[in-house]
Write a structure and sequence with these properties.
Layout: H1 19-29, H2 32-39, H3 46-57, E1 75-77, E2 80-82, E3 86-88, H4 101-112, E4 115-118, H5 126-132, E5 137-142, H6 148-161, E6 166-169, H7 179-184, E7 209-210, E8 213-214, H8 225-233, E9 238-243, H9 246-254, E10 259-262, H10 276-287, E11 292-296, H11 302-310, E12 315-318, H12 320-351
Parallel strand pairs: 3-12, 4-5, 5-6, 6-9, 9-10, 10-11, 11-12
Antiparallel strand pairs: 1-2, 7-8
The protein binds flavin mononucleotide and the ligand CCCCCCC(=O)C(=O)O.
């Protein structure tokens, strides 16, 4: 029997049934400033909240009597097999949630055989992450700095370490306005560092800061020509994260990248933009299978995963739920989050008559109710 002393709250002994149980636990146990940072959306949080609500507006058309006694959730991303189509989106500062930070996240994704996109703003270095989970499948998320040498160095480092793709985040020319972070004057505590840039991102001289990091390091002038620049310094596949329109999807294909992540940064950047699931169809229709299309934002259940795949995503990624898992029990917590999503996805597949991911298609979606 589970015993919990917390009145109205969750404790580590309670069985976790769904992802919102982890959210509740994290809210209860993290400091207010850390919780607010993870939960933040931009401005009035309309896009952040719509990321979740949009899935509720989509209805499924289940098929029956299809012998779903055996099911297979495996898929591939960029030619590599993963055990199910859910990976971990890049999120910053995992050591705020758990002392082993990104090393714990990396071990969990290695154990579950799925993809982990490491953030530029990790609080463990890429070397520590690879050492913690040497057989894990990883991509590296890149921001482009004003100082291109800095970007170039990290690209060469992750390439040498065996990262399999670069995820170029394109929706942060400036950080979105996150009201509680401003109210809390949120910053990384002094014992934590952006480890990949030790000595570079430390605020050693006085100057404007954002989250305790020197402000203005990211280059707001980046444009499509920088995709060519990135291609010139790496042989890794490039995946652009933060595309929400068919026009930009077409440009991404024309610029020769290998993938797109349809994303609004968890609603933390432009408030008023579309929910990512609502932007997916026009992008998939434009891309027409020329490159892989992925999605993140608001995935909280297995049926959300099913809906995204039915609308054409090859794989989806979770941001905040992974951090809630970390806050709960480190590696074990992230594993539980992924396992619950995998179990729910498998069940949703079976209940809608799909035996494998190849059988998931748009016929599953009831368009008249969209
Ligand atoms: C706390 C937090 C930190 C994030 N840090 C990054 C980051 O460093 N780089 C990046 O490309 N996206 C970052 N994102 C955006 C996520 O990669 C992803 O787009 C978003 O979290 C998906 O929405 P979800 O949290 O509803 O799953 C961050 C999101 C959150 C919530
Ligand atoms: C100075 C920019 C910090 C960005 C931190 C990571 C991120 O993308 C986020 O959404 O938070």
């Amino acid at each position: 029997m589970n015993i919990c002393n917390l009145e109205g709250g969750r404790c580590a002994e309670m069985a976790m049934v769904c992802l919102t149980d982890f959210e509740e636990y994290a809210k209860e146990h993290l400091s207010k400033a850390t919780w607010d940072y993870y939960a933040a959306g931009a401005d009035e949080c309309c896009t952040r909240d719509d990321n979740l609500l949009a899935y509720k507006r989509i209805r499924l058309r289940p098929r029956i009597l299809r012998d779903v006694s055996v099911s297979d959730t495996r898929t591939t991303v960029q030619g590599t097999e993963i055990s199910f189509p859910v990976g971990i989106a890049p999120t910053a500062f995992h050591c705020l949630a758990w002392h082993e930070g990104e090393m714990a996240t990396a071990r969990a994704t290695e154990a579950l055989n799925t993809c982990y996109i490491t953030s530029t703003y990790s609080t463990c270095s890429v070397e520590e992450i690879v050492a913690a989970a040497p057989n894990g499948y990883r991509w590296f998320q890149l921001y482009v700095y004003r100082d291109r040498k800095l970007s170039e160095q990290i690209v060469h480092r992750v390439e040498a370490l065996g990262y399999k793709a670069l995820v170029l985040t394109v929706d942060v020319p400036y950080t979105g306005k996150r009201r509680n972070d401003i109210r809390n004057q949120f910053k990384l505590p002094p014992h934590l560092k952006v480890k990949n840039f030790d000595g570079v991102f430390q605020q050693e001289t006085a100057g404007p800061e954002e989250y305790g990091i020197p402000a203005n390091t990211l280059d707001p002038s980046i444009s499509w020509k920088d995709v060519y620049w990135l291609q010139s310094i790496t042989r890794l596949p490039i995946i652009i994260k933060g595309i929400l329109t068919k026009e930009d999807a077409e440009l991404a294909v024309e610029h020769g990248v290998q993938g797109i992540i349809v994303s609004n940064h968890g609603g933390r950047q432009l408030d008023g933009g579309p929910a990512s699931i609502d932007a997916l169809s026009e992008i998939v229709d434009t891309v027409q299978g020329r490159i892989e299309v992925y999605l993140d934002g608001g995935i909280r259940t297995g049926s959300d995963v099913l809906k995204a795949l039915a609308l054409g995503a090859k794989c989806v990624f979770i941001g905040r739920p992974a951090v809630w898992g970390l806050a709960y029990k480190g590696e074990e917590g992230v594993r539980e989050v992924l396992q619950i999503l995998n179990d729910e996805f498998r069940l949703s597949m079976a209940l809608s008559g799909c035996r494998n991911v190849a059988e998931i298609n748009r016929n599953l979606i009831q368009f008249s109710k969209l």
